[in-house]
Amino acid sequence: MSEEELESLRDRIDEIDDKIVELLSDRIGVAEDILEIKEGMGRGVRDKGREQKVVEKAREKAVEEGIDPEFAEDIIRLTISRTAGAEQELSGGADMWGKIKDFFEGNPAQLKVARVLYKYGLRAHEDEEVVCGGIRVPAVQIAEEAGVDRRAVHSTVRTVLENDELRGIFSNLRPVPYLKGVARHLDLGLFEIIPTDATESGIISEVSGVISKHGLSVRQSITDDPYLTAQPRLTVITNNPISGEVVEDLRDLDSVESVIVY
Q1: With 90 as the cut, is the pLDDT of residue 38 above it?
Q2: What domains are there in the chain, each with its CATH number?
Q3: Does the predicted model carry a pTM greater than 0.70?
Q4: Less packed terminus of the chain by CB within 10 Å, N or C?
Protein backbone atom coordinates (compact mmCIF):
# COMPACT_ATOMS: atom_id res chain seq x y z
CA MET A 1 0.00 0.00 0.00
CA SER A 2 1.34 3.43 -0.94
CA GLU A 3 1.50 6.45 1.34
CA GLU A 4 -1.19 8.08 -0.82
CA GLU A 5 -3.57 5.14 -0.32
CA LEU A 6 -2.93 5.19 3.43
CA GLU A 7 -3.76 8.90 3.65
CA SER A 8 -6.91 8.33 1.59
CA LEU A 9 -8.12 5.68 4.05
CA ARG A 10 -7.30 7.94 6.98
CA ASP A 11 -9.38 10.68 5.36
CA ARG A 12 -12.29 8.24 5.14
CA ILE A 13 -11.89 7.41 8.83
CA ASP A 14 -12.01 11.13 9.66
CA GLU A 15 -15.20 11.53 7.63
CA ILE A 16 -16.82 8.56 9.38
CA ASP A 17 -15.81 9.90 12.81
CA ASP A 18 -17.38 13.26 11.94
CA LYS A 19 -20.60 11.51 10.98
CA ILE A 20 -20.61 9.53 14.24
CA VAL A 21 -20.35 12.75 16.26
CA GLU A 22 -23.08 14.38 14.16
CA LEU A 23 -25.36 11.39 14.72
CA LEU A 24 -24.71 11.49 18.47
CA SER A 25 -25.66 15.17 18.45
CA ASP A 26 -28.85 14.30 16.56
CA ARG A 27 -29.63 11.57 19.09
CA ILE A 28 -29.32 13.96 22.02
CA GLY A 29 -31.53 16.44 20.19
CA VAL A 30 -34.23 13.81 19.71
CA ALA A 31 -33.84 12.79 23.36
CA GLU A 32 -34.56 16.39 24.38
CA ASP A 33 -37.75 16.33 22.31
CA ILE A 34 -38.73 13.04 23.96
CA LEU A 35 -38.12 14.57 27.38
CA GLU A 36 -40.57 17.38 26.66
CA ILE A 37 -43.21 14.83 25.65
CA LYS A 38 -42.53 12.69 28.74
CA GLU A 39 -42.84 15.72 31.01
CA GLY A 40 -46.19 16.54 29.42
CA MET A 41 -47.34 12.97 30.06
CA GLY A 42 -45.99 12.95 33.62
CA ARG A 43 -43.58 10.09 32.87
CA GLY A 44 -40.06 9.51 34.19
CA VAL A 45 -36.83 10.01 32.27
CA ARG A 46 -35.65 6.39 32.11
CA ASP A 47 -37.52 3.52 30.46
CA LYS A 48 -35.50 0.40 31.26
CA GLY A 49 -37.71 -1.85 29.13
CA ARG A 50 -37.22 0.33 26.08
CA GLU A 51 -33.48 0.59 26.74
CA GLN A 52 -33.14 -3.20 26.88
CA LYS A 53 -34.94 -3.53 23.54
CA VAL A 54 -32.52 -0.99 22.04
CA VAL A 55 -29.54 -2.98 23.33
CA GLU A 56 -30.91 -6.26 22.01
CA LYS A 57 -31.58 -4.70 18.61
CA ALA A 58 -28.02 -3.35 18.50
CA ARG A 59 -26.61 -6.80 19.26
CA GLU A 60 -28.71 -8.36 16.50
CA LYS A 61 -27.62 -5.69 14.02
CA ALA A 62 -23.99 -6.18 15.02
CA VAL A 63 -24.20 -9.89 14.21
CA GLU A 64 -25.69 -9.04 10.80
CA GLU A 65 -22.86 -6.59 10.12
CA GLY A 66 -20.13 -8.95 11.34
CA ILE A 67 -19.32 -6.86 14.41
CA ASP A 68 -18.72 -8.21 17.91
CA PRO A 69 -22.13 -7.84 19.65
CA GLU A 70 -20.41 -7.18 23.00
CA PHE A 71 -18.65 -4.19 21.46
CA ALA A 72 -21.91 -2.94 19.96
CA GLU A 73 -23.66 -3.32 23.32
CA ASP A 74 -20.93 -1.34 25.10
CA ILE A 75 -21.25 1.49 22.59
CA ILE A 76 -25.04 1.58 22.77
CA ARG A 77 -25.12 1.42 26.58
CA LEU A 78 -22.59 4.26 26.80
CA THR A 79 -24.69 6.30 24.38
CA ILE A 80 -27.88 5.59 26.33
CA SER A 81 -26.11 6.52 29.54
CA ARG A 82 -24.88 9.86 28.23
CA THR A 83 -28.21 10.66 26.58
CA ALA A 84 -30.14 9.80 29.73
CA GLY A 85 -27.75 11.97 31.69
CA ALA A 86 -28.42 14.89 29.36
CA GLU A 87 -32.18 14.32 29.78
CA GLN A 88 -31.87 14.24 33.56
CA GLU A 89 -29.87 17.46 33.62
CA LEU A 90 -32.48 19.18 31.46
CA SER A 91 -35.21 18.06 33.83
CA GLY A 92 -33.19 19.02 36.92
CA GLY A 93 -32.87 15.38 37.92
CA ALA A 94 -29.27 15.65 39.00
CA ASP A 95 -30.31 16.87 42.45
CA MET A 96 -27.50 19.22 43.53
CA TRP A 97 -26.72 20.18 39.95
CA GLY A 98 -30.40 21.02 39.58
CA LYS A 99 -30.00 23.46 42.47
CA ILE A 100 -26.88 24.93 40.88
CA LYS A 101 -28.84 25.49 37.68
CA ASP A 102 -31.39 27.50 39.65
CA PHE A 103 -28.71 29.96 40.74
CA PHE A 104 -27.81 30.62 37.11
CA GLU A 105 -31.39 30.67 35.84
CA GLY A 106 -31.70 33.15 32.99
CA ASN A 107 -27.95 33.17 32.40
CA PRO A 108 -26.96 30.16 30.27
CA ALA A 109 -23.48 31.56 29.63
CA GLN A 110 -22.65 31.50 33.34
CA LEU A 111 -24.06 27.98 33.65
CA LYS A 112 -21.72 26.84 30.86
CA VAL A 113 -18.77 28.33 32.74
CA ALA A 114 -19.89 26.63 35.96
CA ARG A 115 -19.93 23.28 34.12
CA VAL A 116 -16.34 23.81 32.97
CA LEU A 117 -15.18 24.75 36.48
CA TYR A 118 -16.78 21.66 37.96
CA LYS A 119 -15.57 19.34 35.19
CA TYR A 120 -11.91 20.29 35.62
CA GLY A 121 -11.91 20.99 39.36
CA LEU A 122 -11.15 24.69 38.90
CA ARG A 123 -11.67 27.01 41.86
CA ALA A 124 -13.23 30.44 42.06
CA HIS A 125 -10.61 32.53 43.89
CA GLU A 126 -11.24 35.50 46.17
CA ASP A 127 -9.56 37.90 43.72
CA GLU A 128 -12.26 36.98 41.16
CA GLU A 129 -9.87 34.80 39.20
CA VAL A 130 -10.05 31.08 38.41
CA VAL A 131 -7.24 28.84 39.64
CA CYS A 132 -6.16 25.24 39.23
CA GLY A 133 -4.57 24.40 42.55
CA GLY A 134 -2.55 27.57 42.97
CA ILE A 135 -2.08 28.30 39.26
CA ARG A 136 -4.13 31.05 37.63
CA VAL A 137 -6.13 29.93 34.57
CA PRO A 138 -6.69 32.69 31.98
CA ALA A 139 -10.36 33.58 31.56
CA VAL A 140 -10.01 33.49 27.78
CA GLN A 141 -9.14 29.78 27.86
CA ILE A 142 -12.08 28.93 30.11
CA ALA A 143 -14.36 30.99 27.86
CA GLU A 144 -13.13 29.10 24.79
CA GLU A 145 -13.82 25.75 26.46
CA ALA A 146 -17.29 26.88 27.56
CA GLY A 147 -18.09 28.52 24.23
CA VAL A 148 -18.81 31.93 25.78
CA ASP A 149 -17.34 35.42 25.97
CA ARG A 150 -14.56 35.82 28.55
CA ARG A 151 -16.63 38.41 30.38
CA ALA A 152 -19.01 35.57 31.28
CA VAL A 153 -16.16 33.90 33.17
CA HIS A 154 -15.61 36.92 35.42
CA SER A 155 -19.34 37.40 35.98
CA THR A 156 -19.70 33.71 36.89
CA VAL A 157 -16.94 33.97 39.48
CA ARG A 158 -18.61 37.05 40.95
CA THR A 159 -21.93 35.20 41.13
CA VAL A 160 -20.20 32.32 42.92
CA LEU A 161 -18.43 34.54 45.43
CA GLU A 162 -21.62 36.45 46.23
CA ASN A 163 -23.57 33.29 47.09
CA ASP A 164 -22.61 31.25 50.16
CA GLU A 165 -23.88 27.94 48.75
CA LEU A 166 -22.13 28.36 45.41
CA ARG A 167 -18.99 29.60 47.14
CA GLY A 168 -18.91 26.47 49.29
CA ILE A 169 -18.81 24.34 46.14
CA PHE A 170 -16.78 26.29 43.61
CA SER A 171 -14.19 27.69 46.00
CA ASN A 172 -13.17 24.23 47.17
CA LEU A 173 -12.89 22.20 43.96
CA ARG A 174 -9.62 20.38 43.28
CA PRO A 175 -8.24 18.71 40.13
CA VAL A 176 -7.43 15.00 40.25
CA PRO A 177 -4.53 13.34 38.34
CA TYR A 178 -6.70 11.04 36.22
CA LEU A 179 -5.14 7.92 34.67
CA LYS A 180 -8.02 7.17 32.29
CA GLY A 181 -6.36 8.83 29.30
CA VAL A 182 -3.06 6.98 29.71
CA ALA A 183 -4.24 3.60 31.04
CA ARG A 184 -3.91 1.77 27.72
CA HIS A 185 -0.46 3.25 27.09
CA LEU A 186 0.62 1.84 30.45
CA ASP A 187 -0.97 -1.58 29.75
CA LEU A 188 -3.46 -1.07 32.55
CA GLY A 189 -7.03 -2.31 32.67
CA LEU A 190 -9.73 0.33 32.21
CA PHE A 191 -13.47 -0.06 32.56
CA GLU A 192 -16.50 1.91 33.69
CA ILE A 193 -19.45 0.76 35.74
CA ILE A 194 -22.88 2.25 35.17
CA PRO A 195 -24.73 1.48 38.40
CA THR A 196 -28.35 0.50 38.73
CA ASP A 197 -28.73 3.19 41.40
CA ALA A 198 -25.66 5.29 42.20
CA THR A 199 -27.15 6.43 45.50
CA GLU A 200 -27.23 2.89 46.91
CA SER A 201 -24.44 1.83 49.28
CA GLY A 202 -22.00 -1.02 48.68
CA ILE A 203 -21.41 -0.61 44.92
CA ILE A 204 -17.67 0.01 45.22
CA SER A 205 -17.34 -2.83 47.71
CA GLU A 206 -19.06 -5.31 45.40
CA VAL A 207 -17.00 -4.27 42.38
CA SER A 208 -13.78 -4.41 44.39
CA GLY A 209 -14.71 -7.91 45.58
CA VAL A 210 -14.97 -9.17 42.00
CA ILE A 211 -11.66 -7.56 41.06
CA SER A 212 -9.92 -9.05 44.09
CA LYS A 213 -11.39 -12.51 43.41
CA HIS A 214 -9.68 -12.53 40.02
CA GLY A 215 -6.30 -11.52 41.44
CA LEU A 216 -6.32 -7.96 40.15
CA SER A 217 -5.47 -4.84 42.08
CA VAL A 218 -6.94 -1.36 41.65
CA ARG A 219 -4.55 1.40 40.54
CA GLN A 220 -7.20 4.09 40.60
CA SER A 221 -10.93 4.36 41.21
CA ILE A 222 -12.92 7.49 40.40
CA THR A 223 -16.62 7.87 41.18
CA ASP A 224 -18.93 10.60 39.98
CA ASP A 225 -20.99 12.28 42.65
CA PRO A 226 -24.59 11.08 42.11
CA TYR A 227 -25.83 14.39 43.48
CA LEU A 228 -23.75 16.52 41.13
CA THR A 229 -23.72 14.33 38.02
CA ALA A 230 -26.84 13.36 36.13
CA GLN A 231 -25.52 9.99 34.93
CA PRO A 232 -22.80 8.99 37.43
CA ARG A 233 -20.39 6.14 36.86
CA LEU A 234 -17.51 4.38 38.53
CA THR A 235 -14.27 4.35 36.56
CA VAL A 236 -11.77 1.67 37.62
CA ILE A 237 -8.18 1.26 36.48
CA THR A 238 -6.50 -2.04 37.33
CA ASN A 239 -2.91 -3.23 37.24
CA ASN A 240 -3.71 -5.51 34.27
CA PRO A 241 -6.42 -5.57 31.57
CA ILE A 242 -9.56 -7.42 32.69
CA SER A 243 -10.76 -10.65 31.09
CA GLY A 244 -14.19 -11.51 29.75
CA GLU A 245 -14.78 -13.62 32.86
CA VAL A 246 -14.29 -10.55 35.06
CA VAL A 247 -16.72 -8.58 32.91
CA GLU A 248 -19.36 -11.28 33.20
CA ASP A 249 -18.97 -11.46 36.99
CA LEU A 250 -19.33 -7.69 37.19
CA ARG A 251 -22.45 -7.75 35.03
CA ASP A 252 -23.97 -10.37 37.33
CA LEU A 253 -23.93 -7.91 40.24
CA ASP A 254 -27.37 -6.52 41.09
CA SER A 255 -25.84 -3.09 41.62
CA VAL A 256 -24.38 -2.98 38.11
CA GLU A 257 -26.47 -2.00 35.12
CA SER A 258 -23.68 -2.29 32.56
CA VAL A 259 -19.90 -2.53 32.15
CA ILE A 260 -17.98 -0.64 29.49
CA VAL A 261 -14.45 -1.86 28.78
CA TYR A 262 -11.91 0.33 27.00
Answers
A1: no
A2: 3-90 (1.20.59.10), 96-170 (no CATH), 180-261 (3.30.70.260)
A3: no
A4: N
